[in-house]
Amino acid sequence: MPISLGSRYNLLRTILKTRQTIKSPMSEAHGSIIKTPKQLIITVFATFFVPLIIILLLLVYVNNGKRTDAAASAEQLIKPVAQLNYQDASAPSESKEAAPATK
User: Fold this and answer.
1) Burial track 17-42 (b if 16+ CB lie within 10 A, e otherwise)
2) Sequence-ordered list of residues with C-beta below 8 angstroms from that of 30, at least 6 positions apart, any chain
3) Which residues, in sequence order, are CB contacts of 40 under 8 Å at separation 6+?
4) pTM for this structure?
5) What does the DSSP assignment read for the chain?
6) What residue spans define the domains of the chain?
7) Could you report the per-residue pLDDT of 46-102, keeping only the tens digit for each?
8) Residue 75 class from Cβ within 10 Å (0-12 exposed, 13-18 middle, 19+ buried)?
9) Which end of the chain is more exposed for a tag (fewer CB within 10 A), N or C?
């Protein structure tokens, strides 16, 4: 005996309702953390601005050290590397204690 269209509809509706109400732990474990559009917008802004703010705070922290004259400090850094002392190879060598190096 064939099943009428109305009873097929009711059977399918009942099956779908039971599938929607029965949730296994596996299906909940793979669910998304973001459930609403508002949470999505907040997450997108947070992923952009939080690292930006952290980087800016680190820059402020690093740059708040002792500030000196930029030209003088660069010259002091380069001077030991760029300074050349030429000496005559045939001249007698002097001891370091007798004549301290001039800067």
Assistant:
1) eeeeeeeeeeeeeeeeeeeeeeeeee
2) none
3) 34
4) 0.38
5) -PPPHHHHHHHHHHHHHHHHH---HHHHHT--S--SHHHHHHHHHHHHHHHHHHHHHHHHHHHTS----HHHHHHHHHHHHH------TTSPPPPTTTSPPP-
6) 33-60
7) 999 999 999 999 998 888 866 666 666 777 777 766 667 777 788 777 665 555 555
8) exposed
9) N
**Whether 13 contacts 19, CB under 8 Å:** no
d(CA 90, CA 87): 9
CA-to-CA distance for 59 and 45, rounded, in angstroms? Answer: 21
* Beta carbons of 49 and 41 less than 8 angstroms apart: no
